């Protein structure tokens, strides 16, 4: 059997993964959903043909989008998660005993159902944690109704086209600001700075976040199955600075063991390459 | 025209790059050499079918292998470069006025000739800098004859199989130690920690370096066209610590502008993920 899944990262470069078999293929109201079994990456999920996660490297994305804000804000009790139907963000959040309430707003119930059936490493029993409240709604609309309600918002969106498009708009970031307490933090997946088209999306998202939040920084991780492998996250905050307010002793006191995240790596994740600094500075100065 | 170059990063994953045309194909005494023109990455060089550099992302590798040691050691005058036939390391080194002498030991004269003809962005006029002395010899043999001769050795090798194999041996690292002054530094390309086979090569190289040098650390960069995009370099040193002896003010005083390297990023490059720390610790404790 010589079966390959390929994702074009640009029209001129693609990453291909050998597939053992397809476990699921379906069309939801919102998107095409597929799950594959592969020898290199274990099971992996694609939406509309774009790689969402693989069992081998999802720990990097999920640890980095959750533990970075958790190590900065001293007392996160109420969290809003937009997207995240695969369950990975919820898995990492529910490791913190001091979190009291998690609203997860996923537009597509089929994603959750398929992940529960085929990806138990991310969509596991933590989705049934009594603190987790799943809402099958449009995140864009949900957040419009919230005010001064959350300590942390995690935007675990797909790419800035298709169903996830609205999650990269000025209106959405403004509503997230309003939905957060006065010391709240918003973290979002922020695309890659490397290929031209991704870099433009990244720059555009940063511009809009800078316009909504007083503190806006970008941090990076190595995610081998995402375009270029160099992935960014946005850290937007009303009060806490991602480095000055990092409390290493407090976070290490939680006793959570991670495969990627450490509080030392946390700092390095914000030390981005010169060309990425330039890319972001260009829009910061327009503010 | 639908022409693609592919590199298998493991038998089960491959990166493919659309090719506009092949500029060169030849067999030297040591290896197959090819140069391609591509819409995404500009020109790129492969040896035995393995990606060596592309015009779009070579700056990351070359800046990181050169500027990290240059920002740590206060007075590097004499440098030995093993490999580096593409000229990229020499380009970055010759930007420092205080370097007096560079020995470049490349086993394959054809690589230099082909790069001079087709890759002028790396094999440019700096190869004719009077401080640069090119030796077409086996680096393994060359370094055996040296003692207390260099401030810095840069091992810009191919992978640990084929012509580059000897450059990952205990004997070679021991000879590099001997070839360095009492405060010398050796930096080498150190493979990737992500895919199993690469991780083993990486671990093995680290074990051998730890056995030869009192200070041995690993640092990382995002290199999109290398396997997994997460690439490591080894920093081995007799005296200087890569972070404690980093002199940011001195390096910034040189006024070199880089696209990837900054002295802030320098620090973050050593803040490696938990699983990579584990991988290296395993062999450090065997020492």
Key attributes of the depicted protein:
homodimer, 287 residues, alpha/beta, Spermidine Synthase, Chain: A, domain 2, Rossmann fold, 2 domains, seven-stranded mixed sheet, four-stranded antiparallel sheet, 9 helices, 13 strands
CATH class of the largest domain in chain A: Alpha Beta
- The helix/strand order of chain A is EEEEEEHEHEHEHEHEHEEHHH
As a percent range, the share of strand residues of chain A is 25-35%
Give the name of the CATH architecture of the largest domain in chain A: 3-Layer(aba) Sandwich
Unreliable stretches covering 5 or more consecutive residues of chain A:
none
Strands ordered across the widest β-sheet of chain A: 9-8-7-10-11-13-12
Compute the gyration radius of chain A: what is it?
A: 18 Å
Q: Quick one: CATH superfamily of the largest domain in chain A?
A: Vaccinia Virus protein VP39
What would the average pLDDT of chain A be, to the nearest integer? 95
Multimeric state: homodimer
CATH topology of the largest domain in chain A: Rossmann fold
